[in-house]
Amino acid sequence: MTMRTQDIITDKLTAAFAPESLRVVDESDEHEGHSGHRPGGQTHFRVYIVSEAFKGKSRIDRHRLINGALAAELAAGVHALAIHAAAPGEGAA
């Protein structure tokens, strides 16, 4: 049985960052007809994550960490990944 990309992203980010909160939203249906969209979706995602791992890190460094954790998915068909990453106490991610 193949896992959905959304579940794989959730599992990998949980393992890598032990987040206080994490929400992965599949927005593929909003991009039908746009570049990178495929029938069946699982191409466009938005991630909201709060983790101690981001404390003291710049926005770019946070994005690099997340992109690194999801390198296989980004290479295998995830076309777009919007990232909202925060450390605890920085506000809603």
Structure overview:
The protein is an alpha+beta fold. The chain has a single domain, classed as GMP Synthetase, Chain A, domain 3, CATH 3.30.300.90. Helix content is 31%, strand content 22%. The protein is built from 3 helices and 3 strands; from the N terminus they run αββααβ. The chain has a 3-stranded mixed beta sheet with strand order 1-2-3. The chain is globular and about 35 Å long. The N and C termini lie far apart (32 Å). The model has no long low-confidence stretch (mean pLDDT 87).
- Unreliable segments (pLDDT under 50, ≥5 consecutive)? none
Helix content: 25-40%
Element-by-element helix/strand order: HEEHHE
Task: For the largest sheet, list the strands in their spatial order.
Answer: 1-2-3
The biggest sheet, with number of strands, parallel, antiparallel or mixed sense and barrel status, is:
3 strands, mixed
CATH class, named Alpha Beta
Query: Please, how many helices?
Result: 3
Number of domains: 1
